[in-house]
Amino acid sequence: MGGKVMMLRKVTTPFVMQIKLLKILALLGCGDKLASEHMYTVVGDIMRKCDSSSNIGNAVLYECICCVSSIHPNPKLLEAAADAISKFLKSNSHNLKYMGIDALGRLIKISPEIAEQHQLAVIDCLEDQDDTLKRKTFELLYKMTKSSNVEVIVDRMIDYMININDNHNKTEIASRCVELAEQFAPSNQWFIQTMNRVFQHAGDLVNIKVAHNLMRLIAEGFGDDDDTADNQLRAPAVESYLRIIGEPKLPSAFLQVICWVLGEYGTADGKYSASYITGKLCDVAEAHSSDDTVRAYAVTALKKIYAFEIAAGRKVDMLPEVGLCGTSPAFLTLAI
């Protein structure tokens, strides 16, 4: 006995039942190639007939994409799903953009290359005013990152982090930026510059291990006994730290890195005199007189520079006092 098919905005009613059936198909086709092959035509037809100008149509279309991402992969359906996601991401609606971000996150698990064609549209979602959408976008960008796009994505992540006031979220973003930089950095120079930005804008929320890893990287250089290459890494680091060192409210861990680098390599290439570098280190020690660890790093760096100068047969002035009077036992232990 035939029945009349009812349509609402080009979607077969009841559309809620249609969504539930798509969810069932997704479960049945997951890990089952033969079952999935029987679904391809039906799912493809639904995607073609969906009216993307209506909320109902978009809801069904989103569920189709979820289904496509669950069943055995089909190139034509993946392409259709990618096209639908593109429309979601380009929409002015926060809700549709959110659906696009969520759907793309599902799709890239089975077809990672799809992420590349949507990368710029996803990054643009970080500029949206909706905080929930921005957090969802951040999570997707983290999953999308690889060596070929790490520079663009991490740079935008840091920009996003700068405008966040919540310390919990800022800590998480800083941690993810560090993780991606350590995993995919295209060069040591880029890694150092990126860590500088993370320290400057996340402050003491950055794990102290990051500072230690940064110092180790600069100390090890390229690891192939190439002094010229190592100097090309360390000299820019010294340059950047001399520019940064006078900025207010630098985090303690970052100041430790700066003092250590200036002590080890501040005069290495002869561009800067010992008196210039020691002057900068004294400024740090005096400006951070209440931070025993920073002062200890500064004084240790001063001692290294003076030792280098004496070993080179150059005359040095007396080690400046940098406010050592009344120093705590902890400071004295650290500075030895």
Automatic annotation (TrEMBL):
Localisation per UniProt entry: Endomembrane system
Keywords: Membrane, Protein transport, Transport
Clathrin/coatomer adaptor adaptin-like N-terminal domain segment(s): 12-319
Recorded coiled-coil stretches: none
Pfam family, one: Adaptin_N
Superkingdom of source: Eukaryota
InterPro entries documented for this protein: Adaptor_Complx_Large_Subunit, ARM-like, ARM-type_fold, Clathrin/coatomer_adapt-like_N
Name this protein carries in UniProt: Adaptin family protein
One cellular component term from this protein's GO annotations in UniProt: endomembrane system
A GO biological-process term: vesicle-mediated transport
